[in-house]
Amino acid sequence: MTPSMITLLVVAGIVLLIAIGYMNHVVENNKLEKARLKVELTDRVRRCSEVSETFPGQLMSPGLKHLLTRLELNACQRLLHLDKNSAPVKARIAELNALVGQGESIPVNNPPGPILTEAKAKDVRFLLETLHGQITRAVQDGFLPTNEAKRWIKEIRHLLVVLHIEFFNNLGQLAFQQNQPGQARLAYERGAQYLRKQPEPAMYSSALKEMEEQLARANSLVLTKLEPTKDEVNELTEGLKTDEADADWKKKVIYD
Questions:
Q1: Is Transmembrane helix among this UniProt entry's keywords (predicted)?
Q2: Can you give the pLDDT at residue 23?
């Protein structure tokens, strides 16, 4: 074997080792990417399901339910592509396909969830933010058309306003029931200010008018509580008479 042949064999061996190393690197990267994508899609399925199941019934519509079902179905189908033998994913896809096929007739079984505390309002707001994120990702994936996504994002903004309207109204009514007109006034003031700041205040003119009427009612009750009653006026008058009598007596003592 000539030196040139030995050199060629050495070079070929080195190239082969580099090729094997590169292929191993590509395979490892593909495995990591597949694992990463699987985790991401599993999380997206969970998030869509969470919003669909826990969103308050008074804010959930058939259209929104249908959208969430479609988003979850898309994530499940992509997940099945990564793990073709997953029985749970196959079963879930069958359920979701049946629901999507019902269109606007899809059942909405979410129970109403009154927004009575700030913590509850924050929880619902978080669900809306989650939905916004899922819509954005679906557009990036090419699953959801841009015009449809824009329509739903506008609807999310509207639902956020409706959430605040319900929250402030509930706070105000609860304060009235507890005979705390000052707290009711604060709730309706916050609600009215929030509605006036909306980009399209005309959409919520009716809600604003109602909130301002309740604010006026709270103001009236606060002023009424501050006014002394007839008995209090009498007590105050008698107290003043006593003070005057004491003052006259002291003057007599001083000047006598």
A1: yes
A2: 74
